[in-house]
Fold this protein.
Amino acid sequence: MPRITRRSLLRSGLVSGAALSVSPLIARSAWATANALESASTATIPALAPRERLLFDFDWKFQFGNSIDPAKDLGFGNGQGDFAKTGDFDFAKVKFDDSKWRSLNLPHDWAVELPFVRDEVQNSHGYKPVGRRYPGTSVGWYRRIFDIPATDLGRRITLDFDGVFRSVLLWVNGIFIGRNDNGYAPFHFDLTDFLIYGQKNAIVARVDASFGDGWFYEGAGIYRHVWLSKTDRVHIDKFESYARSAVNGNTSTVSLGTVIQNDGPQAANASVTWKLLDPTGKIVETVEAASQSIPSDRSATFIATAKINSPQLWSIESPNLYSAIVTVESGGKATDAERFNFGIRTAVFDADKGFTLNGKPLKIQGTCNHQDHAGVGAALPDRLQYFRLGILKEMGGNAVRTSHNMPTPEWVEGCDRLGLMMMCETRQMNSSPEGLAQLEAMINRYRNSPSIILWSIGNEENELQYRMAEQGAKIGTTMVRRCHELDPMRPVSAAVNGNNEQGVSDALDVIGFNYNLASPESFHKKHPKLAIYGSETASAISTRGVYSTDPLRNTVSSYDVNQPGWGETAEEWWKFYATRDWATGGFAWTGFDYRGEPTPYGWPSINSQFGIVDMCGYPKDTFYYYKAWWSQEPVLHLFPHWNWEGREGEPIKLWVYSNLDEVELFVNGASAGSQKVPHLGHLEWTVKYHPGVIEARGSKGGKVVLSEKRETTGEPVSIKLIADRTEIDADGEDIAVLRVEALDKQGRPVPTANNFLSFKVSGEGQFIGAGNGDPNCQESDKDPKRSLFNGLAQVILQSTKEPGEIHIEAVKEGWFGPELTPAKLTITTKKVELRAQVT
């Protein structure tokens, strides 16, 4: 029998209204972790000559269309003759008047800009009006004028999209080029024949988000990067270069391969050379493949083998990255070249010993995450990807799962560089041509990334697991076989909600269990040769900074005691996987709160409360449970806060998360007793509330090594702004993430503050979004105003391309409540070399 799943219950609405906190401080060291890689946000490897790869994100025009009324959709579809004649689309020509269209840069998510609507059909997508029932806000038109030099004549020119949500129709210079219907896989169009060389050109994309790919917030629009690529006619095929490393003792054998395409009018002789560079950039090996003749409009595969002595292995502690420079020569000259990163490491799933990385046992300490952040929705600037990964790594996390779709390139690159492992998951479990095309795009795009240890072909496909188990086994077998063909180095799995005894599971290399702690033990005994991990676990629920569940306010206490019927608390799932050698670990649902799937309440909740951190990345209290048992550093975390006006004399539960030996609690200077720290557990006291100070003192080896206090604060009197970085790149892409908090007259953060603030931004930057982590807050992410939630809010600023300063001032908004002293902050934007861009 299929188990009740998180997805099925959420869709049925059975969780709504279920009866069931957090340090309000973000881990500053999480910011420091990301800050240590401040240049990594633009670390994407530039193109090598003679190839050009130009960023195509700037200077777009946008306006809404309409999915049912042609008169509101540029007249598109007004009759049935739209495609009758080639080149007949005036809105895609240079002369078209787009002066009233909105100017913007990519990435762009128009869904996050829309107001919330009380429509339960839209609850999983964050109550945003996108879909067939909202024709006026489900179609967007993007338009761009750009130059193509006359010297590009004879080259192959493609437009590359990293991801668009969702259905795209593309025109160039009035000519319809093609369409793409997948919301997550990259795609490209060849523009060579349709461009006007030496003149201005026009491109138009009609994006229709009426249909969705998932049951979660997915955004709408061109939410990932766009690139213009220029190559010779004899060139490296897209995503067709690979480096597969095997380690034998103190030597690594690297198998190299690439595919060369000849788009010229006649056959061409071509040869390929690889130069391998170590993590310092030193060339350690050069190999060449024999020359081949490639017929016109055909391709050829080139392979070679290299050996690297004493390789520097990629690991979570030392994420060493090698790189390969692939050069194609034809007619006595280099016609194309590219550089890509790869890693050397071993990663093994063993049925008895669990998971090993480079031969050392390692528990997978992972989280599942959607691409979604406060203020920006699905359109995350590159730097924000690193910011989010830094928070998860600070917690002690060593792995992420891409739930439930092919991830954006910068998220994968961030894992490669920061040392986080990845379970990389495709969106559509299907062996149809479309399903396999999505799978192939994911594997080809990311098979060189050392962070990826496991491919996933799907999530909770209960039809294919039970009622259609026979078809599920066949579909799974075809998909797994294709994974092995494209990448023989990694195992294949899926996230399964059930007992894994039939259907898709029959085809898998490694068995993933979603929740269901009752089944892995028995499955291991019955199938002793199959490795097991928790593909999705926990689903614990909490609201940051809240310490009593209140269904009338749609909040859940931050004590680790709340989970829906299918889930487990943080302690429950981790104790299970941490104490069994054969269990490889798992991925908690979720690292971050995310829009949609509001649980355990419906409206006015507009995002989930599953996160270990909130939508802004501010830690909830369970963050410190994981940090205590996932990281190597001493941890001591005391909660809740000590502001309980009106509850004097009432008992308050105090919890401590720690990995020390013993903790003693003091209340207003008097000891409330010491407790030994239970392995993988937590400590509890119950004391009566009286204003003042509570303090936890943690001991190791009989000596106090850490202490933490919570004080009763006064009312808020001032505002404070703290930036993750006070100097950013003046490239039009880089960001500063600002922590906003209220302080009392002694300068202490007030954990209960909920003041409404506004933000004034000037200089060489702009406000691009705000949030506060409140799952019930329906304030606009794009309005430079925001209320504090339990003492905190967040603002994201983005640079222009001009070096200088960004000035931001935070002031109290509105006449009600006590006055607050404003806060000002200056961010310096430094001149840098810009990524190559289209003009």
